[in-house]
């Protein structure tokens, strides 16, 4: 189990995640299709060529999922009970096919669960960065985490 238990986190702790992923046009088309998102800005190259970007934008929900996904191995794999929600999610820079995305996580808050004594709540700030070190995604994620077994 690679994930950490609640007690193993500390406020201010930073994880620079090793896993990186170069995103592809097929990722964008497949994800948009699987989620029934027909927005031309994601799947229509001819249309996207007429926009200010000149090419399709990666679906932002794909970007969010990827950024959170690459954080799991170092933080919550096998020790999370549930995601409690994401907030303050922003996409400051666009993502395009061919960009390589990596993630950085900072623990911003720890609190005991009032209703579950064997668990605690961790608030993570996840940053997605591209190959130019530009922030392309930021979110706060609340996770219900296991405490260490007694």
From TrEMBL:
InterPro entries: HotDog_dom_sf, MaoC-like_dom, MCH/BMMD
MaoC-like domain mapped to chain residues: 11-124
Pfam families, per the entry: MaoC_dehydratas
Gene3D superfamilies found in the cross-reference section: Hotdog Thioesterase (3.10.129.10)
UniProt cross-references to CDD domains, sorted A to Z: FkbR2
Name of the featured protein: Acyl dehydratase
């Amino acid at each position: 189990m690679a994930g950490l238990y609640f007690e193993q986190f500390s406020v201010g702790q930073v994880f620079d995640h090793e896993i990186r992923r170069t995103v592809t046009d097929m990722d964008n088309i497949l994800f948009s299709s699987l989620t029934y998102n027909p927005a031309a800005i994601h799947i229509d190259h001819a249309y996207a060529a007429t926009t200010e970007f000149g090419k399709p934008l990666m679906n932002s929900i794909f970007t969010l999922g990827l950024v959170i996904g690459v954080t799991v191995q170092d933080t919550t794999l096998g020790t999370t009970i549930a995601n409690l929600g994401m907030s303050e999610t922003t996409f400051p820079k666009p993502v395009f096919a061919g960009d390589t995305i990596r993630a950085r996580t900072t623990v911003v808050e720890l609190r005991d669960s009032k209703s579950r004594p064997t668990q605690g709540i961790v608030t993570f700030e996840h940053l997605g960065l591209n190959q130019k070190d530009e922030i392309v995604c930021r979110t706060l994620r609340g996770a219900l985490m296991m405490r260490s077994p007694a």
